[in-house]
Specification:
The complex is a heterodimer of chains A (about 325) and B (about 230).
Chain A lengths: L1 H19 L1 H21 L5 H19 L3 H7 L3 H22 L3 H14 L14 H5 L5 H23 L6 H11 L11 H5 L5 H30 L5 H23 L8 H15 L4 H23 L4
Chain B lengths: L1 E8 L8 E8 L4 E5 L6 H9 L6 E6 L2 E2 L5 E4 L11 H5 L9 H8 L12 H15 L3 E5 L7 H16 L3 E5 L3 H5 L4 E6 L2 E7 L3 H23 L2
The chains are: A mainly alpha (about 325), B alpha/beta (about 230).
Chain lengths: ~325, ~230
């Protein structure tokens, strides 16, 4: 039965890759090789190997929190924890290989122990019906922001206050902008329903322009006060916060274009997720930003063409 | 009048899901589309709305090419963006004459709660409220009664009959034939991608009997073999 499960997973991956096409799959493979290389280098020395294990396990914890098939597995299979464990084991094998090759036994042992803990996590964050003034101020058409702010309000508000309050420390504002800039990535993961897409009653170009404009306005409202505070206290290196802001708005625009390039009603498109990784890379490694700009240009036309199928009557 | 002529739709090259279908649907009436699973009901509705590309044929509404501006479409499976409230969802659709609170009173929906916490029936009601708010001349409703309790089904029936009186044209599908015979002016039977026949209101009772008898006869032998 476990074999059947793993087989299904491989089929899922195979079909997702097939859906991406050869060129994009090669691009993604290149990216994975690059990440694997970084992983290998970083896991060669202590304490970096411990940090790498920490990040990897954190990702697995998030997967365990977010996966929606836990109930299904629990209802239908007695050994559902074993299924989870084997799935996570398969995901963590590249890390284990790096640790074994680099003789990093302590992080390896820690990872194995924590894997057994992770499969036992059976907790779901309950979504709150937070209806604050902030949600009311966000325009109706920006449902991604309404949803995202509601979901992350308890993280965003303290972060913002902390960033502003400690802006005299040099690293404070850039770190807070980084976290606030990462959060909107999740806003554009899922494709909205057709009714929501058509509700704007705009053509493809107008729709995309409006989406990008609202994203820029709302993100700027969130981070510009922090940037100003940073410039006031560290005017000699003002460009750090400004460059960070430019990197984030570039990647946000890119994420919007990728979302609508692969948009299908009600679907979390694999293409959006795969190319979203490149956007995330642009944030982590700024030398990726020219690629993000180039792909944004290409995806603008692709998203326009894709949206035209649904919005052609409003052109 | 909705005119569909020689409509052909396929998902692969091997066979057509909608096969040279022609039908005229009169205005200001409720048209029911029935058919067994896989007959092509949803594909037909999707093609009328323009959600899938058609291979060939013609679909016209009031002598013009079908335009999404004039049509609202309730899909079978309703999907909502997570972490938004019912009120926020409905605020996407523009209609200043829509009294949101009165409608929510009718459907008993907690509009300030996030949709993720709604039951299946509540989600269906919300999607329907969105369709009603759009107030378009043509409404396409794919299985609108799925997952709803008796009271809501009855309320929707009343609403649809009222909308017909206000000159709306409604196309509706349902697996429960009784819901259609109680509501529609015409019922069109779809089989293997073609309209096999259309019936008017006075012929519904006969049609119902014939349909049930034919289904039962078709499967009687096999059921008798399976359950001895």
């Amino acid at each position: 039965m476990i074999q059947a499960f793993i087989k299904i997973r491989f089929f899922q991956i195979y079909r997702a890759i097939k859906g991406l096409g050869i060129i994009r799959s090669c691009l993604l493979l290149g990216l994975f090789v690059f990440v694997a290389f970084i992983l290998f280098i970083q896991s060669s020395k202590y304490p970096n190997s411990l940090y790498v294990a920490g990040i990897y396990l954190l990702i697995l914890i998030l997967i365990q929190f977010k996966r929606s098939d836990k109930q299904f597995l629990k209802v239908h299979f007695n050994n559902f924890k074993r299924i989870l464990l084997i799935e996570y084991m398969l995901l963590i094998i590249p890390l284990f290989i790096c640790f074994i090759y680099n003789k990093q036994w302590q992080p390896l042992l820690l990872s194995v122990i924590l894997l057994f803990v992770i499969v036992n996590i059976n907790f779901r964050f309950k979504s709150l019906s937070l209806n604050t003034l902030i949600q009311r101020l966000i325009p109706s058409s920006c449902f991604e922001w309404k949803s995202g702010i509601r979901k992350n309000l308890l993280l965003i508000v303290p972060l913002f206050v902390l960033g502003l309050g400690t802006s005299f420390y040099i690293g404070s504002v850039p770190i807070v902008i980084f976290i606030l800039g990462i959060i909107p990535f999740g806003f554009y993961e899922k494709g909205e329903s057709l009714q929501m897409l058509l509700a704007s009653e705009m053509g493809a170009s107008g729709f995309l322009f409006n989406k990008i404009l609202m994203q820029l306005i709302l993100f700027s409202i969130l981070v510009v006060p922090l940037i100003i505070a940073f410039i006031i206290f560290h005017y000699e290196i003002w460009y750090i916060a400004v460059i960070e802001y430019i990197i984030f708005i570039s990647t946000h625009v890119y994420i919007i274009f990728t979302k609508y390039s692969f948009y299908q009603p009600n679907v979390k498109a694999s293409g959006t997720q795969a190319f979203g990784i490149i956007g995330a890379m642009g944030v982590l490694f700024p030398f990726f930003i020219p690629i993000v700009w180039l792909l944004s240009f290409l995806f603008y036309f692709k998203s326009k063409k894709n949206l035209n199928f649904y919005l052609n009557d409003y052109n | 009048m909705i005119i569909i002529e020689k409509l052909e739709v396929s998902y692969d090259k091997l066979h057509n899901v909608i096969d040279s279908l022609s039908i005229n649907l009169s205005e200001n009436a409720i048209h029911g589309i029935v058919g067994l699973n896989g007959a092509g009901k949803t594909t037909l509705l999707n093609s009328i709305y323009g959600l899938i590309s058609i291979n060939s044929g013609l679909i016209r509404f009031n002598d013009k090419k079908m335009n999404k501006k004039e049509v609202s479409f309730l899909e079978t499976e309703n999907y909502f963006y997570s972490n938004i409230t019912g009120r926020e969802y409905l605020s996407l659709f523009k209609n200043i004459n829509y009294d949101l609170d009165k409608w929510s009173q009718l459907f008993l929906l907690p509009l300030d709660t996030i949709i993720d916490d709604y039951s299946t029936g509540m989600k269906k009601k919300l999607a329907l409220m969105g369709i009603l708010k759009q107030d378009k001349p043509l409404m396409i409703l794919d299985e609108p009664f799925n997952g709803l309790d008796i009271e809501t089904c009855r309320i929707i029936r009343q609403i649809l009959l009222k909308l017909k009186d206000r000159n709306k044209t409604i196309i509706i599908t349902s697996h429960i034939i009784e819901t259609l015979t109680n509501l529609c002016d015409y019922i069109h039977y779809l089989e293997k991608g073609k309209i096999k026949f259309s019936k008017e209101k006075i012929e519904f009772s006969e049609f119902e009997k014939e349909l049930f008898a034919s289904i039962e006869n078709k499967n009687r032998l096999l059921i008798n073999e399976l359950i001895v």
